[in-house]
Write a structure and sequence with these properties.
heterodimer, A: 263 residues, 7-stranded parallel β-sheet, two-stranded antiparallel ribbon, B: 111 residues, alpha+beta, 3-stranded mixed β-sheet, 6 strands, elongated
Amino acid sequence: MGRFHRHDDGTAHSHDHDHDHDHDHDHDHDHDHGDHSGYATGTERIEVLEAIFAENDNRADINRNAFEAHGIRALNLMSSPGSGKTTVLAATLDELAGEFAVGIIEGDIATDLDAAKLEGRGAQISLLNTNNGFGGECHLDAPMVNRAIGGLDLTTLDLVIVENIGNLVCPAEFDVGEHAKAMVYSVTEGEDKPLKYPVMFRSVDVVLLNKIDLVPHLDADVDTYISRVREVNPGARILPVSARTGEGMSAWFDWLRDFARTT
Amino acid sequence: MHELSLCRAIAGVVKQHAGDRRVDVVRVQVGALRQVVPDSLAFCWTIVRDDEDMPGAELELEFISAEVQCHGCGQQSQIESRFSVACPQCSSADVAVVRGEEFLVTSVDVA
């Protein structure tokens, strides 16, 4: 990638001027690739300094304001695929029915399978398929949630839970207008996940350590899972539960009640 | 994994500033703690720039290393690991991120 050029005295050499921008080390040098004066090339440099998430974050604030205008608390629920988010939600809706009016924004790439599982449990459900555009999306962002809010009657709700797309990477980056983030992390996923996906694990206020009923069948112990979460997020509430048997779920319901009542 | 939507967001920022002018270069700063895969971002950009009517726009990435201020031992240090923000001095996870979460368009060259 050297730049070969010839000087007036006839010498020629190649500068080792490696501008490979696709690696991880720090680039503290100036990226002046030639004339930016605007005279010779006709180009002009415009300083921008704008966060790429700014538009998403503005829309997230609009969503949050809409929730708050109706006294609603919103929770962003995230996890990997198959961790048990929907099972947790079904048990949660059954528990809270009659106590809180709950709206669910159900993120799903292409199906209504999760929404169908949650029907008939007293909650309003707004299904949000994300397979528009090219290739589908791996997360919910604020504009998508904004559209889904239109499928809920906010005037009647106390609590909105956004069930995000199953994915430990992308959803962590996008504020959708929630007041808190929770995640479901099941013991079948392996105890190394907090270290592999620290951005997600650092972003959440509460971790439901799910499927603890399977611990006797696995080479796993709950304390190791908890300490691995603590390594990346010392402040998170960690609640060992089994959404299937109901073990530990009362602590989650209590957390959610406190959250929903906070103003 | 979400580089395609990131590229669309980058194009949105660029358009606000460039208007109808031809865009030659887009400079983006990426902190080490952002879950951005550079090769994937570069590839997605080649798709999105055509779609967004800026086919000649080159994407230049500048990487910012991560630094944390440790609440345990009080030291500020650069972190080398991609996977952990724990303090390299004392291994505490009780840290504040000082640098490394940047993700912004710093400048554009337009004609």
